[in-house]
């Protein structure tokens, strides 16, 4: 994969706008807004000072951006922490305590009711299962851990678990 290098965020932004305008791969309609999409785009900014966009007209708040990233990574959806950095987010809360749809970290990192593992952990288990299958390891993943995953994957995990148990147990 070729990763172009840009001097600034602005240079990268303009180049990516040209790419999405002239060489887009897909047309999408996200929430009623038609757009063009290019998948798998990457770029480098060698100067660390250029890695944050500073647009006076946009009113970017780098402190909030870092706080929001940490809020997502912590799997939180409460207003207590994020509300300190963005008090206006409280207006989007139905109960004044938590946020709903915009709390992506909570949705990805917290198990759904009745589930033992989060969607993120399920993906990690899938990657591990595929790695084991690809490398033909005898390590098995218990099928009950895979919960609501695709039935074919649960079946495959159950077969590997049984084979592993017959050989003396999981390792």
Features:
single chain, mainly alpha, two-stranded antiparallel sheet, 6 helices
Summarize it:
With 171 residues, the protein is mostly helical. It is 42% helix and 6% strand. The protein has a two-stranded antiparallel sheet.
What structural class do helix, strand and pairing data support? mainly alpha
Unreliable runs, pLDDT <50, ≥5 residues?
Answer: none
User: What is the string of helix and strand elements?
Assistant: HEEHHHHH
Radius of gyration: 22 Å
Taken as a percent bin, the fraction of beta residues is: 5-15%
Q: Estimate the mean pLDDT confidence.
A: 78
Helical percent range? 40-55%
Number of beta strands: 2
Taking strands numbered 1, 2, ... along the chain, how are they ordered across the largest sheet? 1-2
* Count of runs of 4 or more consecutive helical residues: 6
Main sheet record:
2 strands, antiparallel
Name the shape in a single word.
extended
Q: How many angstroms separate the termini?
A: 37 Å
Explain what you see.
With 171 residues, the protein is mostly helical. The chain contains six helices and two strands. It has a two-stranded antiparallel sheet. Strand 1 and strand 2 form a beta hairpin. The radius of gyration is 22 Å and the shape is extended. The two termini are 37 Å apart.
Strand and helix map with partners:
Blueprint: H1 9-22, E1 26-30, E2 33-37, H2 62-73, H3 79-85, H4 104-109, H5 119-135, H6 151-166
Antiparallel strand pairs: 1-2
């Amino acid at each position: 994969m070729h990763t172009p290098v840009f001097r600034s965020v602005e240079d990268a932004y303009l180049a990516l706008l040209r790419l999405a305008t002239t060489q887009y791969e897909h047309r999408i309609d996200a929430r009623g807004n038609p757009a063009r999409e290019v998948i798998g785009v990457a770029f480098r900014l060698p100067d660390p000072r250029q890695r944050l966009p500073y647009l006076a007209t946009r009113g970017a708040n780098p402190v909030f951006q870092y706080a929001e990233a940490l809020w997502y990574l912590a799997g939180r959806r409460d207003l207590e922490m994020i509300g300190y950095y963005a008090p206006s987010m409280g207006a989007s809360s139905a109960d004044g305590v938590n946020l709903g749809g915009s709390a992506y970290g909570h949705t990805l990192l917290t198990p759904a009711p009745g589930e033992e593992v989060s969607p993120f952990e399920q993906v990690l288990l899938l990657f591990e299962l595929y790695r084991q299958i690809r490398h033909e390891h005898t390590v098995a993943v218990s099928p009950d851990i895979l919960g609501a995953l695709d039935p074919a994957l649960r079946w495959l995990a159950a077969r590997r678990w049984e084979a592993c148990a017959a050989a003396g147990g999981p390792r």
